[in-house]
Amino acid sequence: MKKIVLFGDSIRMGYDKYVKDALEGAAEVYYPSENSRFGQHALRRLHDWKDAGEWPEDIDLVHWNVGLWDVAEIYGDPPLSSIAHYKDMITRIDRRIRLLFPGAKVVFATTTSVVDEMFEGKRFQRHNRVIEEFNDAAREALAGTDTIINDLYAHSCKCPMEYRSDETHYNTPEGAAYMGGKVITVLCRELGISASEVKLENFRMEDYTADNIGY
Description:
By secondary structure, this protein is of the alpha/beta class. The protein contains 7 helices and 7 strands, in the order βαβαββαββαβααα. The protein has one domain: SGNH hydrolase (Rossmann fold). About 40% of the residues lie in helices and about 10% in strands. β1, α1 and β2 form a beta-alpha-beta unit.
């Protein structure tokens, strides 16, 4: 049976259980109960999540993302992370993954889109033009590696509005299936496995607390 690690921000937390359910019997799927937040937080915590979750070292594939916290603009300030800092974190996280899971394929998911107009007038902002800049920076940082890019940004731009739960997230059964389905397609292709159907009427997302999920 294949072994997969998922880690990332609240977008990952919206689809992780869907992926796990769909791959039951084909792969063991591991993920932390914590939001990966910023790139620097993910770099600091990855080995802790591995130890706490007793993730095996013979992981076949790691699928990860960070970015939504890095691009956040609060009270009109620039994004919380600079482009240069974000690129450095992407490079270092990629290197850390290969240290902790030396036999694993690595897949990086681009940061997903937001509904720009729903942020108007709020002190906390995210903008797709900034997300696109950070996604380009991530691609540049990973260009010299064999990391596979899963373009969740492009996929999310086509997501029906009714699948979204707010201006940022996809925390509905349909949203989990839409985003998780794209992740599953990449995992199955790269690992040569097949997924099972997940019936949405019976599907339940992980019971994360608001503090776990963050924003």
